[in-house]
Amino acid sequence: MPLLDIASQCPSLPLCQALAEKDIKGSERFKIMERKLYRGIMTPSMLVAITPGLWMLIDRWDPYFKTATWMHIKLTLVILLLAYHHLCGRFLKQFSQDKNSRSERFYRAFNEAPVLILVAVVVLVTLKMPA
What we know:
Elements: H1 2-8, H2 12-19, H3 24-59, H4 63-67, H5 69-96, H6 104-127
């Protein structure tokens, strides 16, 4: 799921829009692009990733996973990514109503969050640590 959210690049569009707020035509163009990416790519990608993930988790759940700390950390990171997805939707709604109150610097930092989550998930799954 982190790869799908990163690949959609929806989080980088608010950054671009924050930079182009004074350009009305550019701002309107970004609003359209953001809406299409969020509704057409980001949300379906999230559903495509979550559905088999939940199925595998339920189907293959065994006593090992109940005590595997790395799995609990990974699931927490996935929940954080779902919250990130929801925040992206809220920010896009604020932009569509011209009510952005955050700076370009905030969106630069916000844009990096899924990359950090991806790295953490890959390390956890690869090393399966902490046990």
